[in-house]
Amino acid sequence: MLSTRALSASKQLSRKVSVLGAVRAKHTVPDLDYDYNELEPVISAKIMQLHHDKHHATYVANLNAAEEKLQEAQAKNNVAAQVAVQPAINFNGGGHVNHSIFWKNLIGEKNGGGHLHDGALKTAIEQQYGSLDSLTKAVNGKTAGIFGSGWGWLTFNKALGHLDVIATANQDMPSSVGHVPLLGVDAWEHAYYLDYNNVKAEYFKNIWRVINWKDVAKRYDNAVAEHKASKN
Hints:
This protein is α+β, with helices and mostly antiparallel strands. It has helices at residues 4-7, 45-75, 79-104, 120-129, 132-144, 193-196, 200-206, 213-231; strands at residues 16-19, 22-25, 150-157, 162-169, 179-186. The protein has two domains: 4-104, Helix Hairpins (Orthogonal Bundle), CATH 1.10.287.990; 112-231, Iron/manganese superoxide dismutase, C-terminal domain (minor pseudopilin epsh fold), CATH 3.55.40.20.
């Protein structure tokens, strides 16, 4: 089986487009740090390939198209067209950002998936939630309560200066409500249906086996550092 690096190498080329004389870089689908089958049996290779190469790629393509329309509208000083394209930018931009975080949040069990190491994040989780098990229940409960499609998140709440558990609808980003995303659980059907059918609770339960806590901890450390710097 070819690695995802080889399969998606062509997507990683930084392409440029010219729109009314201006040049900007197009968004691209980020490469995975692992092969499609590394997350099995929690998430199948088939889902990973479809999710990464089809669904995420569609968000990226639509975001690039929407930004080109926006740039054209700005060049023509067409305010109505600028307003009209904004929902597409928000939705597809959110899809791109949320999935880019999601891929980094995952890693195979054989490579450390599911293991929370000692450190600032573990201490914060235990202080606020009592244990990792209690945190997972809080995230799963919030995620299961999503009506329709969306995301469950462990975040850093910038206003309160500590961890928080929230859910966002569709492809809304935690940053839109003042939160720094640390860990996202994709609750869209395309993330689990081929493996779990309509039993999404099993998907929410099993995904913790492949969480890359090193990545989550790094995001937490960065969020705390930025928060402290903003207070000085």
